[in-house]
Design a protein that fits this description.
- This protein is an alpha/beta fold and 281 residues long.
- The chain is elongated.
- The two termini are 14 Å apart.
- It has a 6-stranded parallel β-sheet, with helices on both faces. Strands 1-2-3-4 form a 4-stranded parallel β-sheet.
- The longest helix has 14 residues.
Length: 281
């Protein structure tokens, strides 16, 4: 019926035919755009996905009544792409909420010592997450190097990176973990000396936000979206310069383990998100 609000939050069903039909029927069309990484950084997109994404965004440009953005940083990038496509619909920012799992050390894989100095990087293994850079960092750390746990499943990754991961020695300082339950991931992040986020592009970036919410230090590349979300709750380093990362990791590994209550950072909440989003209906 006319007056109905159509809300799309997933980048699916954003074709020209569907959105044009909804618009002609007199519906208010609200679309949440997570990010425009495939257009801003096509080198990080799976082959064959850039032009279909551009077509979906063109349909949004032509027919959306408004757009929800996750941060001001992604809003700026998305609206720049929409301007190239002909029309920038009105927008607003509503950061997504962050639900934290309860850390459960009992679920951590056997052989991992949570009291030893270690670092965690969390996320799907794909080019923009910059895992190869961390492998280069660890190859240059003084021995004995602290442990690095790469937590995440394999997505689209270059063969050279996968070969490096497959060649990691079983007794070496770097270990890949996948398929862990949420409680184990939370326990690993909570006890880490820092979460490392060397990503080259993000639309939001849940792992740094989750880590800060657990009181874990964050060392991240200097992305506008991360600065917007975490402010001074992270250490920001250049994305391609090994030596600041080496120095910072060595210094962080030498610090004593934090015992007792940690200083945590308040993450965005779903209540705040939906207070904004549902006010549009």
């Amino acid at each position: 019926p006319r007056g109905t609000s159509y809300l799309n939050v997933g980048h699916a069903n954003l074709g020209e035919k569907a959105l044009a039909s909804l618009s002609r029927a007199g519906l208010s069309v609200t679309v949440l755009i997570h990010d425009t990484i495939p257009l801003d950084h096509p080198q990080f997109a799976r082959p064959g996905t850039v032009e279909p994404f551009r077509a979906r965004l063109a349909a949004v440009s032509a027919h959306a009544s408004r757009i929800i953005h996750l941060t001001e940083a992604t809003r700026r990038l998305t609206e720049a792409q929409l301007a190239l496509l002909g029309r920038v619909p009105p927008g607003l920012v509503a950061p997504i909420g962050v639900d934290l799992a309860t850390p459960d050390p009992a679920l951590v894989p056997h052989g991992i010592d949570l009291s030893a100095p270690y670092f965690v990087t969390l996320g799907t293994i794909e080019p923009r997450k910059n895992h190869a850079f961390l492998l280069d960092v660890w190859a240059r750390l003084p021995t004995p190097a602290p442990r690095l746990y790469i937590v995440g499943n394999r997505g689209w990754a270059e063969a050279a990176l996968l070969a490096r991961l497959d060649a990691l020695p079983a007794d070496g300082p770097v270990r890949v973990l996948h398929g862990l339950p949420d409680g184990a991931v939370a326990a690993l992040v909570a006890q880490a000396r820092a979460l490392l986020a060397p990503s080259l592009a993000e639309g939001f970036g849940l792992p740094p936000v989750e880590a800060a919410s657990l009181g874990t230090p964050v060392i991240a590349t200097d992305l506008a979206v991360t600065r917007e979300l975490l402010g001074n709750k992270a250490v920001y380093l250049p994305a391609t310069d090994l030596y600041p990362w080496i120095e910072t990791i060595v210094r962080q590994a030498a610090l004593p383990q934090i015992d007792g209550e940690k200083t945590v950072w308040q993450a965005p909440t779903w209540d705040a998100h939906f207070k904004t989003v549902l006010s549009l209906a």
